[in-house]
Amino acid sequence: MVNVMGRPGDVKRAAMRALGDQIAEEAAHFDAAMHRLLTHIREFDAAIGWGHAGAQSCAHWLSWRVGWTLGTGREHVRVARRLGELPRVDEALRLGKLSYAKARAITRVASAATEELLLGHAFVSTGACGRSTRSGRSRAATWTTAWYASRPRSVPRRRRW
């Protein structure tokens, strides 16, 4: 006699696979929504919209109006500004192909010359590969290898311990 349900656990595995797909899809929507938010922040900051409320900066306005910490506000403004300078990263985040965490790490080190290479690394890496913490200082790690390699030889390279 043939078991019509398949092996034990097949139904649960299929349900978990479907749930995993749904989580990934919703995360892409979240990243696309984050792109819209960052675009609005960039436009608001460029127009000095925060000045009409008497704020010292866009980060201060975000802290007051949205309830973010000042550091969170500064980081979002920094990323929003850098996305305006990095069109490929901006587009990947807009389409939900790149997570905010990866976009944030790339915007720390990318230039017009290294943007495409770092984006390529980000597409095939996990989010954990983009950042590491050492001695309390965070820095982009794996994706920045190309950036360090592209620096002039006269600039000393950091040692990794």
Secondary-structure topology with pairs:
Layout: H1 10-46, H2 58-66, H3 70-85, H4 87-94, H5 100-109, H6 115-124, E1 131-134, E2 137-140, H7 145-150
Antiparallel strand pairs: 1-2
Helix pairs in contact: 1-3, 2-3, 3-5
Plain-language structure description:
The protein is mainly α and 161 residues long. Helices cover 60% and strands 5% of the residues. It is built from seven helices and two strands; from the N terminus they run ααααααββα. The chain has helices at residues 10-46, 58-66, 70-85, 87-94, 100-109, 115-124, 145-150; strands at 131-134, 137-140. Strand 1 (131-134) and strand 2 form a beta hairpin. Helix 1 packs across helix 3, helix 2 crosses helix 3 and helix 3 (70-85) crosses helix 5 (100-109). The longest helix is centred in the first third of the chain and has 37 residues, at 10-46. It is globular. The N and C termini lie far apart (62 Å).
Terminal CA distance reads 62 Å
Helix-residue proportion? 55-70%
Poorly predicted regions are: 132-143
Strand/helix succession: HHHHHHEEH
Number of helices: 7
- The overall pLDDT average reads 83
Q: How are the strands of the largest sheet arranged?
A: 1-2
Largest sheet: 2 strands, antiparallel
Summing up helix and strand content along with how strands pair, one would put the structural category as: mainly alpha
Strands, count? 2
Large-scale geometry: globular
- Quaternary state, please? single chain
In what range is the share of β-strand residues? under 5%
Q: Could you tell me the radius of gyration in angstroms? A: 20 Å
